[in-house]
Amino acid sequence: MSEHPIYFLWATPRSTSTAFEWMMRQRGDLICFHEPFGMAWYQGPEARAPRPAPVDRQRPEATFEKIWNDIQDAAEKRPVFVKDMPHHTDHLWSDAFLDRITHSFLIRDPAKVLASLHRSYQKAGMEDGFEPHEISFGPQQDLFDTLKARGAAAPILDSDDMLEDPDGMVRVYCDAIGIPFISDALSWEPGARDDVLWYDGNDEIWHASLRDSDGLKPMPRKHVDPGDLPPNLSAHYDRFMKHYTVLYPQRLRPEMVTG
Prior knowledge:
This protein has helices at residues 17-26, 36-43, 64-74, 95-99, 110-124, 137-149, 159-164, 166-177, 203-206, 208-212, 231-247; strands spanning 6-11, 31-34, 80-84, 101-107, 156-158. By secondary structure, it is α/β, with parallel strands linked by helices. It is globular and about 45 Å long.
């Protein structure tokens, strides 16, 4: 049986990546996985997260090897699309692993990522607590640099560019990774998004906007002032921005849109 492509979108949290994934799910020609290595990283027996998962959320079957095997098995049937965070896999970046994947990246202004995290934590009644590594700006750049050094620079899509012109930028993205553009995939019916809830199942906190949306529609670019963030979050801004500003000039450009 022939092997089909395995497309990975490497994102940070709160980067509109799940909306992008939902669009890819509407295509109908891809087997899609939602942050599969995150399950191993947070909940599996080899968990690497800075905070252990509660006992009732631990997943003893979720080993990194099993998840990678499941993805490769799926690719024997159809092309596969995976949305995940680079920090979930940075210990797996062997030549064999990286070579099997068609890589791409979704980046977002750190001020907007941090503001979105703050809103989500407030809804959950949680402290704004995380390790910088698990927001994945550093691992994003590390992976991009690793691929580029190996002669396989991957396309980068910026969230603001995509939201400002979803039709045009998704066309550019599809062309960059070598798949057909399907315009109908940019629209969908509002509703529950159980396929992308694997940790606490709380759609209201993490995916309310996606649940209530009916597609990727053009949205005006908005500015978020990092100075308006709580001090414990704004303290991360400069560090994250150093990584973002390396990747941003190398992104797919709006002027690449044709037709």
